[in-house]
Structure formats: structure tokens, C-alpha cells
Amino acid sequence: MSERTAVIASRVGLHARPASLFIDAVKRQPVKVTIAKGDSGALNAASILSIMSLGAANGETVTLAAEGDGADAALTELVALLETDLDAD
């Protein structure tokens, strides 16, 4: 299993538009991706309910995990997305 951490760059955290863009990117991946914050359990990263319940704010660190062919590339792409301010004009 591959894991990566990311620091949420969006000013509003992983909510609304940034969450939608992230979920769209997760759904394009060839592997199932999970996301966790702190000691919380891993959640389905393709689920809007999971992402919203995570409550990841600007500056907080989340952990992404995936397993299988393409996991490393998928996580690299998703970490880059989370570490970009998706609220920027």
C-alpha cells in the first residue's frame, strides 16, 4: 500500500469547490483512494460525504492511501492537487 501526506492549501479547506475538484480527480484514478486526518479512520476519498465529514481545514495535514497498479502515480497527482490553492482565481 502506498501512502502520502498532503497539507491542504485551499483557503476554505477541503470544502465546496475544492472538495468537488478533488473528488473528480479521485474518480479518474485507476485505484481506490482513501483519505484520513489525524487519528481518524480512513475514508473513501471519492465520497462527498466522507470528504465533508473529514473537516480538513487550510493548513491541516491529511494522509492519502491507495493500493495496486498506478497507486504511486495517483497519489502523486492527488497530493499536488491538495497542495494547490483551488480557491485561487
**Principal-axes shape call:** globular
Placed side by side, the strands forming the largest sheet appear as 1-4-2-3
Helix/strand structural class? alpha+beta
Radius of gyration: 12 Å
Strand content range: 15-25%
Give the averaged pLDDT, no decimals.
95
What's the number of extended β-strand segments?
A: 4
Helix content class: 25-40%
What's the story with the biggest beta sheet?
A: 4 strands, antiparallel
N-C termini distance? 35 Å
Number of helical segments with 4 or more residues:
3
Uncertain segments of ≥5 residues (pLDDT<50)?
none
String of helices and strands: EHEEHEH
Structure write-up:
The model has no long low-confidence stretch (mean pLDDT 95). Helix 1 (16-27) packs antiparallel against helix 3. It is globular, with a radius of gyration of 12 Å. With 89 residues, the protein is an alpha+beta fold. It contains three helices and four strands, in the order E-H-E-E-H-E-H. It starts with a strand and ends in a 7-residue tail after the last helix. A hairpin with a 5-residue loop joins strand 2 (33-37) and strand 3. The chain has a four-stranded antiparallel β-sheet with strand order 1-4-2-3, covered by helices on one side.
List the helices and strands and how they pair.
Blueprint: E1 2-7, H1 16-27, E2 33-37, E3 43-44, H2 48-54, E4 61-66, H3 71-82
Antiparallel strand pairs: 1-4, 2-3, 2-4
Helix pairs in contact: 1-3
